[in-house]
Write a structure and sequence with these properties.
Blueprint (H helix, E strand, L loop, with lengths): L10 H12 L3 H23 L2 H17 L9 H59 L3 H11 L5 H8 L3 H18 L5 H8 L2
Helix pairs in contact: 1-2, 2-3, 2-4, 4-7, 5-7, 6-7
């Protein structure tokens, strides 16, 4: 251990510690860690407002300090350490921002897909309910409804094909819609109005 070898606060001693660190001196590393860990932690905590995040960033800084010691360009140890933690904090927020954008994008995509699935299910349910409802209509009323909604024939065309008056066709259409709306009351009225055109 070299903790007592270097008087605190002298630039020469820090240069010496830095030189020993680069040579792989574990005592120099421990000296730097004990002297600066808490100061750097306070900076990280002040910026992130998270004890866990601050600890992780500081631990990562010191881990890299040891692992990359031989290749680091350190001209002034204290300046290097505080600059490093500021860069780490900036990188942390940048990654958080990108992650947030990705999550929001993915969430939007999932919600869109779920919405599409829900719409498909709703349409299928309406079609099933509509088919069941048609089976309850009187034959003539059912025929008029099918020709109007599924064959897109006009009132006059239906009247001509079935040899009915226009008024009779309108009567059957009105009757069919009233019956179906009652049978399909569990569905949103606006959707029914859109489908039935009334």
């Amino acid at each position: 251990m070299i903790e007592k070898t270097f008087p605190l606060g002298t630039e020469n001693s820090l240069d010496e510690v830095t030189a020993l660190l680069k040579k792989g001196d574990q005592g120099a590393y421990e000296y730097i860690y004990k002297r600066y860990w808490y100061k750097i932690f306070l900076v990280a905590y002040k910026k992130t407002k998270s004890k866990e995040t601050a600890e992780e960033l500081v631990q990562e800084l010191f881990l890299n300090l040891w692992k990359k010691r031989e290749h680091l360009e350190i001209h002034q140890l204290e300046h290097y350490l505080f600059s490093s933690i500021k860069h780490s904090i900036f990188a942390y927020y940048a990654s958080q921002s990108l992650e947030h954008k990705y999550i929001e994008s993915a969430r939007g995509q999932v919600e869109s897909e779920l919405s599409g699935i829900e719409e498909t299910i709703a349409v299928d349910e309406i079609n099933i309910a509509l088919k069941r409802g048609l089976e309850t209509l009187p034959d003539k009323t059912k025929k008029v409804f099918q020709m109007s909604r599924f064959e897109n024939l006009s009132v006059h065309q239906i009247a001509k094909k079935l040899k009915l008056s226009d008024k009779a066709v309108e009567y059957h259409l009105t009757k069919s819609l009233k019956i179906l709306k009652t049978l399909l009351k569990d569905f949103i009225i606006s959707i029914l109005i859109f489908i039935f055109g009334y």
